[in-house]
Amino acid sequence: MPRYVNIVSGDNTLLLDLDQEICFDMMHKTAKSNGKVVVEEFLFTNESVVKDREGNSFANQFVVSFFKEAGS
Question: Which end of the chain, N or C, is less surrounded by CB atoms within 10 Å?
Fold first, then answer.
């Protein structure tokens, strides 16, 4: 799991640093009280694995769509 994540509730997001115990506890309490927690990756960090030749980081994201064709 990445260090920085967003927990999402409706249109609200909260950035958490999972290296901080209080943030990990907050995510756990949210999951426990709501029965679930939606976690999204946080894209804007200097620790990206995608870099240019000068070492500058890029935000990266993979988007995958699934659909069922009619008659399948």
Answer: C
